[in-house]
Amino acid sequence: MNQTIQNPILKGFNPDPSVVEAEGQYYIAVSSFEWLPGVRIYRSENLVDWNHETDILTNQVDLKGNPTNCSIWAPQLSYSNGTFYLVYTDVKSTHRPFKDCRNYLITAPSITGPWSEPIYLNGSGFDPSLFHDRDGKKWLLNALWDYRLTTSNKSSGIVLQEYDTEHKVLTGQMKKIFDCTYLKKTEAPHLYQLNGYYYLITAEGGTGVNHSVTVARATSIEGPYEVDPEFPMMTSSEHPDWLLQQAGHGSLLKTKDDEWYMVHLTTRLVEGKYAILGRETAIQKVYWDEAGWLKLAHEGKLPAINVPVPRAYQQHGGIVETKPRYFKDDFESEQLDKEWNTLRIPAEEDWLSLKERPGYLTIKSGESLQSLFQQHLIGKRQEEFVFTAETALVFEPEHFLQMAGLSLYLNTENYLYLYVTYDESLQKCLRMMRSVNGNFELLADKVALPENEPVKLSVKVDHAKAQFFYHTTKEADAQKIGTEQSITFLSGGFTGSFVTLSCQDMNQFKGCTAAFQYFKYEGK
Fold first, then answer.
1. pLDDT, tens only, 286-330
2. Residue 334 is a catalytic residue
3. Distance from C-alpha of 342 to C-alpha of 345, rounded to nearest angstrom
4. Which of 112, 123, 130, 178 is deepest in the core (most CB within 10 A)?
5. Given CA atoms 238, 239, 240, 242 in this order, what sign does their dihedral have?
6. Catalytic residue of the set 127, 187, 204, 383
7. 326-523: same fold as 4-315?
8. Backbone phi, psi, residue 282, to 5°
9. In angstroms, rounded to a whole number, what is the distance separating the alpha carbons of residues 36 and 26?
């Protein structure tokens, strides 16, 4: 029986993968945008079973005020002579015609650090990639943003510049080595050396329906680069009903047994339209044909849903299983579980604590859910189309500007929030709010809550629908609040939907505290 890997291998918000082999292990780094800690790292020994190993960016970055869909883009992870290298972009604005971005390099002796302080490289574009040449030289590649172009997307090709490791600066002249094909929007460059050629792999067509992988090659690192005459190498653009859409942004890997695989970005759409889970990571088996061009092992250009496992994995008789995600946090540790992320600011004890009230997560109130600065919120990625999430909250608000609760959250303009707050007539009560593309609305009737008692809050999500519930000591069972809600608006952009716990006080910053007793997420 042939064993296969089922795509995607990293579900939910895990875009722009970069893969590398180091010290007998495989690692994938993915983009994190405005969520911290930044640059999530997954590890595998066999390319089949992937586990969240660590996150790299914590206090090295300042994302406060960065607009939605900006911040940490397309990290590239590499390894050379016992050192890990990570290059990444911190995007500060994308308002046309310009794109304000800063490319950085950090290094570490181990994937878990300690990581060096960031070295600023340049700002001519995004998606940096560091290539370690066999002669010892190191080269930085990135997409070039040309504000003079009259088109909306101004990615004009790929540029190359040498990196001086001694002085930790770029040196020599920046040279444009690749222009876009007719697909345009060329980005995500990765360079490989094989059989006398430098192979340049890029993403083209944008990250939407036309997303593709293009391969070019040259005998000199500075070109000229010849495009594969049968490009694009991979795309889903002509198959809108295929499970794996928007396939592109490929990164290559040669296994210990000389097999080749490529990880890439993909999206699974709800109702054929809505990327609620965000952009995910898939894997493909590939090979080099007789003419020296990269091809999908199953032929054609459409990404495979099921991919052959490496030979070594077959020999060991492993069984490939895909299980829904289950995560339970009882908040009994003194450190926040690495499954959680925060928004634009790191998790620090001045607003978040697991020690202040043992057995609880306490969050001191921050700004509103639309703030770009001080959101006191933790979030867990949505990984399945169908799941339930639940928490128990202890919170005694004294003003209508104080609130705490459970939300489905895409970004500052798109969220559904079930929260405990205060009302002049009911005192402590439960409410729901919704923001769709920045259009705010209060939902459902207010529900009075008993004082000095915890309340359970939960949500059931089934593809494009969500139903919220609450449960107090007065009810035998959980009670629905409001009607079933469409969550199709929790899609689009560069990230995916999160389940979040948060606390706000728009009257007094850090004026109140919410205590969460546990959190449970169960995929179906």
1. 999 999 999 999 999 999 999 999 998 876 665 566 788 999 999
2. no
3. 6
4. 178
5. negative
6. 187
7. no
8. -120, 170
9. 23
Length of the chain: 524
* Residue extents of the structural domains in the chain: 4-315, 326-523
| Interval 365-380: pLDDT, tens | 999 999 999 999 999 9
Q: What is the 3-state composition of the chain as percent helix, strand, coil, each rounded to the nearest 5? A: 0, 50, 45
127 and 189 in contact (C-beta within 8 Å)? yes
Structure tokens at 51: 């586990």
Count of other CB atoms within 10 angstroms of residue 298: 14
Instruction: From residue 177, give the alpha-carbon distance in Å to each of 140, 202, 205, 222, 243.
Output: 12, 12, 18, 6, 34
Q: Give residue for tokens 């005694």.
A: 396
Could you tell me the pTM of the whole model?
0.97
Of the candidates 325, 444, 451, 453, the residue with the CA atom closest to the CA atom of residue 392: 453
477 is catalytic: no
pLDDT on residue 3: 87
**In this predicted model, what pLDDT tens digit does every residue of 105-119 receive, in sequence order?**
999 999 999 999 999
Q: State the Cα–Cα distance between residues 434 and 236, nearest whole angstrom.
A: 33
CATH class for domain 326-523? mainly beta
Assess contact for 410 and 277: CB atoms under 8 A.
no
Contact 281, 264 (CB under 8 A): yes
Of the candidates 16, 228, 383, 390, the residue annotated as catalytic is: 16
Name the pLDDT band for 256 (thresholds 50, 70, 90).
confident
Q: Does domain 4-315 have CATH number 3.90.170.10?
A: no
Our CA dihedral for 308, 311, 315, 321, rounded to 10 degrees, sits at -30
Closest CA to 501 of 392, 358, 385, 370: 392
